[in-house]
Amino acid sequence: MTIRKQAISEKLIHLLNESVIPFDAKKESGYPVLADLIGDARIVLLGEASHGTLEFYQTRMALSQYLIQKKGFQAIAIEGNWTSVYPIHRYCQGQGRAEDAIKTLMHFKRFPAWMWCNRAMLPFIQQLRHYNEHCTHPSDKVSFYGLDLYCLHESAQAVIDYLQQYNPIAAKKATERYACFDHAHTDPELYSYLTEKCLRKSCLHEVTLQLLETYRILYQNLNLEMDLSEKEKQFYITQNARVVKNAEQYYRAMFEPYHVTWNIRDQHMADTLHNILSHVETLTNKPAKIIIWAHNSHVGDARATEMTERKEINLGQLVKERFNMNSFSLGFSTAIGTVTAARGWNGRTEYKSINPPIQGSYEWFFHQLKEKNFLLNLRKEDALTHLLQSPQLQRAIGVVYRPETERLSHYYFSHLPYQFDALIHFDKTHALKPLNHQIQYPTEELPETYPEGY
Predict the structure, then answer these.
(1) What is the structure's pLDDT at 229?
(2) What are 422-431's pLDDT values in tens digits?
(3) Vertex 179 angle, CA 174 and 180, to 5°
(4) CB atoms closer than 10 angstroms to residue 15
(5) Closest Cα partner for 47 from 267, 391, 291?
(6) Cys-Cys link to 434, which of 61, 99, 114, 405 (CB 3.0-4.6 A)?
(7) How far apart are CA 28 and CA 54, in angstroms?
(8) What is the 3-state secondary structure (H, E, C) of 190-253?
(9) Which of 287, 342, 439, 355 is nearest to 51 (CA)?
């Protein structure tokens, strides 16, 4: 390290020591400070630096509970498949038996099941159900939705099942249209290969027609006196039809450059968020306030990272562009400890030690500080923020962790103050514990975070 770089590093560490706010996730005293930073934002994006760190999940849950109780947030949307997350929504809304919480989480069966089928999620959804039970009006209950699109076949079947109840003729037509995928034998990768090589035609026409037909049927059945449960059911089915269309586009593009599928996925998540906002406002007749849980690489603004050089956009960027000051993004980081991850796709769930951070990375600077767990306000315009604007390496661990190729696999450059509005750092963290170590991951569809795990 040159003398100049060393001087800058020492100054940065000094300013960080003076500026960070001690944060104890187990004490409620830290959450009012965060709530003040969030202010009147209607969309709060809560990140994570890995998909397998307990402290990230616990803090997001505690902050979400605080925002629901103190600031009137009405919904949580997570980086999870639409159809797999929906049973959580139904459970939290009071449907089924209270003792079925574990069964509800078991809908996450494909790799990486531990992302949501874990021990931290169990008490949280039980508490959310208990909270909803005490709401004075059904429209005041907190909703819980998934943002992702990897459930093509489940969503298609959900559309067919719904239409079968109300319009058997339309259900038969939907079955015929979605049968376009049958030649791929439920394997999206095979579907991508066959369409890429022009061995079979794409299903774009069929899924688009079915989406429009679903809109038409639901519009015809629209009733201003419709109860909340029927409105919710129609929203669920409409979104399933959207998932099928967007998933078809995603899988058809798999052999194109990586940024194409990444952008399709995050554009879908942003559009799903917009649909959830509209739906919640329809139910409650007031501006919607929603919390998002996803990886840092999704909730931080892509324009502040090297992602933009790869032509990648993300959910955080799209939210900032669409909602500007009505949103707030919170990133997370860690330096050492353990993490739940796999060696490769569909691999065995492991507790892995995290390598010490690379010198010069944001995590390395944070690791040098006197305060080990802290909140950093990135909206302040001061000397510290100015120094942090210089690009530094930042670590991102997905569902796969390869410590032997740490720099190549898990670091990218970012401008932290432009990426997040605030950041929480836990210097030493612990691995997230799956709810069931014996879960067998089926392989009918591609891993749900293919190919980067974020």
Answers:
(1) 85
(2) 999 999 999 9
(3) 110
(4) 17
(5) 291
(6) 114
(7) 18
(8) HHHHHHHCCCCCCCHHHHHHHHHHHHHHHHHCCCCCCCHHHHHHHHHHHHHHHHHHHHHHHHHC
(9) 342
Domain 1-80+292-454 is classified in which CATH homologous superfamily? EreA-like (biosynthetic domain) (3.40.1660.10)
Nearest-angstrom CA–CA distance, 59 and 54: 9
**Residue type for position 46:** L
Q: How far apart are CA 64 and CA 75, in angstroms?
A: 9
At 225, give phi and psi (nearest 5°). -90, 5
Closest by alpha carbon to 414, among 288, 274, 302, 249?
A: 302
**Distance set, CA 407 to CA 4, 245, 358, 359, 401 (Å):** 24, 36, 8, 11, 11
What is the reported pLDDT for 183? 76
**In this structure, is the dihedral angle defined by the CA atoms of residues 331, 334, 338 and 344, taken in order, positive or negative?**
positive
Query: Between β-strands 327-341 and 422-429, what pairing exists: parallel, antiparallel or unpaired?
Result: parallel
DSSP secondary structure, 87-105, as one string: HHHHHHTT-S-GGGHHHHH
Amino acid at 353: S
- Is residue 326 within 8 A of residue 337, CB to CB? The reply is no
| pLDDT confidence of residue 200 | 86
Residue carrying structure tokens 């069964």: 103
Task: Record the tokens describing residue 377, joined without a space.
Answer: 């306000």
Q: Where are the domains of the chain?
A: 1-80+292-454, 149-288
Alpha carbons 245 and 242: distance in angstroms, whole number: 5
pLDDT (tens digit per residue) in 360-402: 999 999 999 999 999 999 999 899 999 999 999 999 999 999 9
pLDDT at 1: 58
In contact, 85 and 143? CB cutoff 8 Å = no
pTM of the model: 0.94
Contact 302/392 with Cβ under 8 angstroms?
no
Q: CA angle, corner 213, sides to 239 and 322, nearest 5?
A: 40
Q: What six digits make up the tokens of 359?
A: 């010198």
Q: Report CA-CA distances (Å) from 386 to 15, 320, 370, 382, 412.
A: 11, 21, 21, 6, 20
